[in-house]
Automatic annotation (TrEMBL):
Domain (GST N-terminal) ranges: 3-81
Keywords: Transferase
Protein name: Glutathione S-transferase family protein
Entry keyword tRNA-binding: no
Amino acid sequence: MSSTYTLISFDLCPYVERSRVVLHEKGQAFEQVFIDLKNKPDWFLKLSPRGKVPVLVVDEVPIFESAVINEFLEEVLPEPALLPEGAVERARARAWIAFTNDVLMEGLGTLWFAGGDAQQVAQGLKTVRGALERIEEALRAREEGTYFSGASFGLVDATLAPVFTRWASMEAMGWGALLDGLEEVQAYSRALLARESVQAARAEGLTEKMVALLRGE
Ligand SMILES: N[C@@H](CCC(=O)N[C@@H](CS)C(=O)NCC(=O)O)C(=O)O
């Protein structure tokens, strides 16, 4: 009997969006249960030790942390492969996923939750720009291809895609210049936004909802 997959979600969450991208890439059917993060239900808190989404429930077993969920999906649904073949390239992909989480997402969080604090905005902009510059260098160092690890779409791309699906809301907030001069990142963003799985994973009305959230409306 095949497994059932239920993704516990919040529609604006970039971490949930990554796992949706991977599920779409794998062609795996899944259910979604949306919760209110301001009023987390008890059943959710029982499943999620950190109280965070996403949680993927596989045949009643909850798996948390988007990077772990995505690696799990790669293991149980090997086609199409979303990690490169060689050990070095696989390690490199995992390292950039960690970098995205610990540096880029951290900087974006500082920016998104600054709530009008100018010092916090400046700190967020600096961290995000620094992270994007490192990504630009990594993209320049590629020998070929449109995606992070080359010609094939992979887990690093699924991890970074939600940053770029939120870019129109970043522009609306006046932060679009963060990409100035980063030609490879700009081309990479266009390639990600054109990807079917990225479009399918994107929440309805994402830009408008993100802008409202960022403006504290
Ligand atoms: N490291 C986690 C981060 C997930 C995360 O921060 N989710 C946010 C929503 S985007 C959340 O559930 N926040 C609720 C809370 O912290 O109380 C992952 O990659 O899954």
